[in-house]
């Protein structure tokens, strides 16, 4: 079905305002039941384009709904994706003001940094192995600009796949030196274990998520480039945060990354 361009632009403006003010809105799909996935990606691109025009740069991409459990919950049969911009990067030991966000959550991810551009439509698992330079411990900070996280697939895609930011740990391990398809991950909040998972939950292997991403984004005029950070999806369930929380994500054989909130 789809919606007209004017509606796309209005939804994009509403989402941008919601993010700027940290005030969540009603889900666009309720007001516009004809909204489809193509509309949603185009809405995402409207807001990304405005941020790029204002001086931000694309730093990478994230895959969402990469686990079978998340796809079943959303009633979909493939992941979604969002953009990571340089002004979305957070850093260890620099606390985040939780009051500037709507309803943030933390996700534990085995991150990748590309050493080469990836091909688009025909990208294979082997292409990804050849292109990934580094494996890095990472946390994705997600946040929904839509009230209470009550979202449909189109709502989250339009909202940049509910992405908010990310933080990378210090460690960099060559892809050839670690089995990224079998990494145990543990998330601690204030010293207590709150989530555990294995990287195999991410489409069977997180590199599968990277090749899917490269193929998917080509249709929207996007390519994965050398230097991009790729977050392939979470190995654990997402965890709500509260002001004052201190998170540590530990990855077997890969290292750790921390994230703090004031």
Automatic annotation (TrEMBL):
Keyword terms of this UniProt record: Lyase
A GO term from the CC aspect: cytoplasm
GO molecular function list: 2-oxopent-4-enoate hydratase activity
Matching InterPro entries: Fumarylacetoacetase-like_C, Fumarylacetoacetase_C_sf, Hydratase-Decarb/MhpD_sf
Residue stretches making up the Fumarylacetoacetase-like C-terminal domain: 104-258
Pfam name, any one: FAA_hydrolase
Name of the protein described by the UniProt record: 2-keto-4-pentenoate hydratase
Annotated organism of origin: Williamsia marianensis
């Amino acid at each position: 079905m789809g919606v007209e361009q004017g509606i796309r632009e209005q939804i994009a403006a509403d989402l941008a305002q919601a993010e700027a003010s940290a005030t969540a809105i009603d889900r666009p799909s309720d007001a516009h039941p004809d909204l489809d996935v193509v509309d949603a990606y185009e809405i995402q691109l409207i807001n990304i384009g405005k941020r790029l025009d204002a001086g931000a740069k694309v730093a990478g991409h994230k895959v969402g709904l990469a686990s079978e459990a998340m796809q079943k919950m959303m009633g979909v049969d493939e992941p979604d994706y969002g953009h990571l911009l340089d002004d979305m990067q957070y850093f260890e030991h620099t606390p985040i003001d939780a009051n500037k966000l709507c309803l943030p959550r933390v996700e534990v991810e085995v991150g990748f940094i590309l050493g080469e551009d990836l091909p688009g439509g025909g990208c294979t698992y082997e292409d990804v192995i050849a292109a990934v330079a580094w494996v890095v411990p990472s946390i994705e900070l997600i946040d929904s600009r839509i009230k209470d996280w009550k979202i449909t697939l189109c709502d989250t895609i339009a909202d940049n796949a509910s992405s908010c930011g990310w933080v990378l740990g210090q460690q960099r391990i060559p892809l050839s030196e670690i089995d990224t398809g079998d990494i145990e991950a543990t998330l601690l909040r204030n010293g207590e274990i709150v989530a555990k998972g294995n990287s195999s939950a991410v489409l069977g292997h997180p590199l599968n998520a990277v090749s899917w991403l490269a193929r998917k984004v080509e249709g929207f005029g996007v390519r994965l480039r050398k230097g991009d950070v790729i977050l392939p999806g979470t190995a654990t369930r997402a965890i709500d945060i509260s002001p004052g929380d201190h998170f540590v994500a530990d990855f077997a054989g890969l290292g750790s990354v921390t994230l703090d909130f004031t």
